[in-house]
Amino acid sequence: xxxxxxxxxxxxxxxxxxxxVWGLATYFSVSRPQSLGFxxxxxxxxxxxxxxxxxxxxxxxxxxKEKDLKKAIFIFLVSIAVLTVSSALKFVGFNFLPWDFAxxxxxxxxxxxxGLGLFLGFGLVLIIGFLVGEADVLPNAGSKIIVKINxxxxxxxxxxxxxxxxxxxxxxxxxxxxxxxxxxxFLVAYGFAKEAQEIKVGEKNILGTQRLALPIVILxxxxxxxxxxxxxSNLIAFPAEVSPSASATWDIAKDVWKSGGLKTYVFxxxxxxxxxxxxxxxxxxxxxxxxxxxxxxxxxxxFLNSLIxxxxxxxxxxxxxxxxxxxxxxxxxxxxxxxxxxxxALILGANLxxxxxxxxYPLNFTIALFSFIGLGLLVASSSKNLRKISLLVxxxxxxxxxLFLILLILGAVSGLYLEGxxxxxxxxxxxxxxxxxxxxxxxxxxAKFIQAVNLDVFQDQYxxxxxQAFLIKAGNILNSxxxxxxxxxxxxxxxxxxxxxxxxxxAQRASQANKTESLNWSNLGFVYENILNFVTGGExxxxxxxxxxxxxxxxxxxxxxxxGRAHLAIIDKLSIQINQAEPVGQKLDxxxxxxxxxxxxxxxxxxxxxxxxLEKCIELKPDYSPAHFLMVQIYDRQGNLAKAMAKSEDYSxxxxxxxxxxxQLGFLAYKNNQIDKAKTALLRAVALSDNYSNARYFL
Length: 699
Prior knowledge:
Layout: E1 3-7, H1 10-27, H2 32-36, H3 46-62, H4 66-91, H5 113-132, H6 144-171, H7 174-200, H8 210-227, H9 246-267, H10 274-281, H11 302-309, H12 311-332, H13 338-357, H14 365-382, E2 386-390, H15 395-439, H16 442-455, H17 460-479, H18 486-513, H19 518-530, H20 538-552, H21 557-581, H22 590-620, H23 625-638, H24 641-654, H25 659-671, H26 675-688, H27 693-698
Antiparallel strand pairs: 1-2
């Protein structure tokens, strides 16, 4: 290689600026591993942004020749055709793929069903551009096969466009119609400009409408579908796709800015960290819906999402890219040469559609990648000016550029190696989960989890699952039948301690690997909760872990129930210790009495703390029945049967078909000597579960 070159375009600087901003946002991120892309496969991670930028530059340089550009478009159209036909077969119930996960109606290689709609819309704009234009897919000169392809090209596109249109009607995603309407406006405007130019140069005498009719018709259909929701979309039961609204995303952005100061205003919380921002700042009103437990990893759209994860610079980088796209389009409209303008117009219209989707839909890896590939094709089709750097001008330049290229190659190879390791680790992990689901054997799963952890040390999810597997092993040992052999008992005790230690170790490693993930802290709390009676002084660690989880998701009622359950576990442990410390009929000395009174005081404090925690949970979500159930237990431990019964009635009302809820109410009424009330509740428990032996006994 004696020289380097690239195509001159304002989009080059815009893409470089986007990559630079994402790099700075990653550096200042609240979770760098997450922003880099080491912990998840979010499409807006820095590694993925680098992939998009690399695809843009490689495509813009590789497809500069007209024949290469035509081949690229042809291959893409063939791919769209394959995707369209396969999706149509799925929609009519024909599953041709052998895997179970691929048999659902919404399975596709793009992503969600709405993502599929956007991708098909992107292809449809390109097809319409061909139908109303004059460009051929391949050069006319050449083999007979190429001539035949060109002859049947447009009739085939008509059929393909009709199938795509039918699929888009079935999906009926409103954002597709908005983006399609914008693209059709461009094609109509371009068609008018084209006709006017031909009249001006004398090629025509009157304004033709043939090339304008189809875009205008589709534009009218899009406007109609935006205003009216047709019942045709209910013909196929697609899974619902839910995301935060634009206003909810904007509210989260404002809270992120307030909490982080100037740095967060400028750089955001970090790429791919929206899931943590959502947990911190989501509205409590969402708890009144069925989506209260959903953790969203993106906001309403990539544009609004970038405002949160990349700050003001992130929004400016996207706007700069969009303005560079507009400038490139306006500048290139002055190109002379019919075929060049035709191909440029096709690509420009398709790019406009997909860039508009950035403002209307969360980022999707496939759509994002093709966005930058499309921008690369736009540069390749409309910019002919090359910038070149010779490597042989001076030894200094040769050495510097060679060193840069070597580092780039090493970085690429290292990146591929790490990606390969992460992929293999994910296979081990999924294999371990499947093995446990089938056999319920934690040993088989643990072997896979440990291999996954060794290959991908950044992935906290693998550490969490490993800690759970060790905890299950410890539980199995605890529940195993005792042996009369003293050595066997000692071996079991040793194994139990080892597994407890490993469960704690892996849970702690997960919480340290990603301190911003609430699941890691709630998992650590769960481990401590299950071994509370076997570890001295574990109470403080238990409460601290759950409180750390609540700090990261303060509006999540489930975490308050976890903390309330932890307080209840400590209450029961203290009750046992109090009973052991003051045996019946034994008089305590002053020191022993002080110890007992201290434990009684601690128990009272735990009761108060548990009730306050659960009251906060009910304030966030009044109909959350686990909180009412735990309050019954704590009031019962407190000896306040009246309040325990009141909460038990609340729990029973929330779960009218739960025999256990009816039994609990009946049992408490029995303890409180309210016999008629107890009888009514116990009869309901027996009616709900005929073989409920405890209910029959107390009845």
